[in-house]
Amino acid sequence: MSFTDGKTIAAIATPAAAGGIGIIRISGPNAFEIADKVFRSKDSSPLSDAKGYTMKYGGVYDGETLIDEALALIYRAPKSYTGEDVIELSCHGGIYVLNRVLRSVIAFGAQAAAPGEFTKRAFLNGKLDLTQAQAVMDIVCAQGEQAAKGAAAAKDGAISRRIAQIKQPLVDLSAHMGVWSDYPDDDLPELTDEMIIEKLCFAQGKLTELLRSFDAGKILCTGISTAIIGKPNVGKSTLMNLLARTERSIVTSVAGTTRDIVEENVRLGKLILRLADTAGIHETADEVEKIGVARAQEKMKNADLVIAVFDSSKELDSDDMTVIELVKNSKSIAVVNKTDLEQRLDTSTIESAFSRVVYMSAGTAEDCSALEKAAEELFELADYDTSSGIINNERQRACCARALECVTEGVEAMRAFMTFDAVNISIDCALEALMELTGERITTEVTDAVFENFCVGK
Ligand code: GDP
Questions:
Q1: Residues of the chain with pLDDT under 50
Q2: CA dist., res. 390 & res. 154, Å (int)
Q3: What is residue 61's predicted lDDT score, i.e. its pLDDT?
């Protein structure tokens, strides 16, 4: 059965900016009828006569007024992204033109699509499961090579396949346990307590592995939350600008003027850093700066990585010691900056406090390769295999954690010699969590929440 509500939806599928090409996507039972009212092909034949996976050249019209020349791409249900009839009108990518075509399409009966509604329809029509649907958004948002690779693998069903490897044995076990206790005299394959525990432990192991992939997935996909700290004037903003290659944060030689936290997503080799340039950490009577320092310390608490910057041209002082003290329990890299100047810094304290020390001159450097290498080593993620399917969002993590909890309960119930029925309740609970993860069993509220975060036109 197709999920259409009888409605045909439309949206601009390309960014709201001037571009070479802009696409208006129409999906639903009246896609052809509506598209035929705005598109006239050069060969005068209507789109409704055209075969799927074909393309027609023509013009888009508002009444009798030609808006733009266009190509119409034709997809016939169920062989389309949404599983419905879909027409994509590919025009010139001007905001005015695209909006005018969309207005026309809506005037002829289409409804403006909600965020993620095309992908939601694909999910509801069984073209994608929920892990694949979420991966579509991850592909769109991927900022780095591994994030894109992981998202492409998930879209191809890598997470679903990992879940199936856990789910199917649990389904079989549950069924076996059911008949074993209901028909103990029948000629059934043997089922001992040890066998059940072994199967549950297998699921436990696989779920633990999948959950572990979350940390890597989060870091690779959404980036490493990074705090750059150091006393004023050591070159934090300069380093951040070098990383971002923009003049994003205010660089100044007046001590303590980077008062607020400036955030930036930057690519460092294969990693994405979510960078927070912070106010200098130092003793100060200045109230405004005090707030900045407190916020910097707050930011550090949630950072996956702290880059502590020191000035190679100055002797180590109490502010530097405060910085060393602050980062001692964090995953951190020391950057000894301004190596182009005469060295006055005794680096032995820094060398013994940090496992990784990078010497550089952020002010004159062409690249960040030394820092890149240190970060990749620290996170051991440079060669992480994302293609096996990694979970990277909180919804998926929560489902996995719930399934693991239930399976663990099942193991404990078996070890406490509880009845098969009691153990089966735990298995059912684990299966439910896994089916929520893939979207096989899911409430409308959860579905809506998942797609709300998508962009319009996707
Ligand atoms: P912050 O207060 O730690 O953010 O320091 P800034 O990035 O604002 O830098 C303070 C001053 O040091 C500025 O005048 C920079 O141009 C200068 N600076 C930063 N990095 C270097 C460097 O590698 N070599 C030299 N010679 N100067 C630098």
A1: 1, 247-250, 252
A2: 7
A3: 95
CATH number at residue 186: 1.20.120.430
Q: How far is the CA of 367 from the centre of ligand 1 (A)?
A: 16
- Phi and psi torsions of 119, nearest 5°: -70, -35
In this structure, are 116 and 145 located in the same domain?
A: no
153 and 120 fall within a common domain: no
- Ligand 1 pocket, 361 CB below 6 A? yes
**Tens digit of pLDDT for each residue in 391-417?**
988 899 999 999 999 999 999 999 999
Please state the pTM of the whole predicted model: 0.72
Q: How far is residue 395's CA from residue 390's CA, in Å, rounded to a whole number?
A: 13
The string of pLDDT tens digits covering residues 123-178 is 999 999 999 998 988 888 787 777 888 899 999 999 999 999 999 999 999 999 88
Instruction: Write down the pLDDT at residue 329.
Output: 84
The pair of three-digit structure tokens given for residue 70, joined into one six-digit string = 């266009």
Does the residue 3 lie in any domain?
A: no
Residue 239's domain is classified under what CATH number?
Answer: 3.40.50.300
Q: Is 22 touching ligand 1 by the criterion CB < 6 Å?
A: no
Q: Kindly state if the Cβ of 233 falls inside 6 Å of ligand 1.
A: yes
Q: Are residues 190 and 251 in the same domain?
A: no
Each residue of 441-458: b (16+ CB within 10 Å) or e?
A: ebeeeebeebbeebeebb
Please work out whether the CB of residue 292 comes within 6 Å of at least one atom of ligand 1. Answer: no
Same domain, 70 and 84: yes
Q: What pLDDT sits at residue 44? A: 95
Structural domain total, the chain: 3
DSSP state of 387: G
Q: How far apart are CA 394 and CA 106, in angstroms?
A: 36
Domain membership flag for residue 449: no
pLDDT at 170: 96
The CA 279 to ligand 1 mean position distance, Å, reads: 14
Residues in the chain: 458
Q: Which domain holds residue 29?
A: 9-128
**Same domain assignment for residues 120 and 141:** no
Question: In this predicted structure, what is the pLDDT of residue 248?
Answer: 47
The residue whose CB lies within 8 Å of the most ligand 1 atoms, and thus the one to mutate among 234, 238, 312, 360, is 238
Task: Check if 250 has its Cβ closer than 6 Å to any atom of ligand 1.
Answer: no
pLDDT at 288: 54
Query: Ligand 1 atom closest to Cα of 362?
Result: 23
Q: CA-CA distance, 241 to 237, in Å (whole number)?
A: 6
Among residues 29, 77, 26, the alpha carbon closest in space to that of 52 is found at 77
Is residue 226 lining ligand 1, measured as CB closer than 6 Å? no
